[in-house]
Amino acid sequence: MSLDVPPGLLAQAEAGDVNEAEFVECIRTSLPYAWDLIAELVVRLDVDGGEFADNQVPPPDEEARGQLLRALASDAIRGALERHHGVKLAFQNCHRVGVFPAGTEETARYRAFTSVRGQLLNQSPLLRDC
């Protein structure tokens, strides 16, 4: 299961509309490693002011890796994280997350990060089974 959904949030979903702030809180509490990593990258992007911030360190264990995969593989979770932080997320392999300013999907740096070439250049035998 991806998220530990509180009964009240589940009731909202069953009734129709869901409060996105409550959904984001559910993500934060259910996927703390993924949340903390993305939040750290957002801060780095803001402080450094560059084109993007990324993580090249694999997660410390399988639980953390699973959280990151669940957060970024779900369109709903990824979209909520992007809207909450005002960024665009990109993902390579099982660990490399790129955080870009929102609206920069057409920049050369974003296109390079998300390209086939970028994916191939980011491969490593150490990450074969990630």
TrEMBL record:
Write down the superkingdom of origin: Bacteria
What this protein is called in its record is SCO5389 family protein
User: Source species, please?
Assistant: Streptodolium elevatio
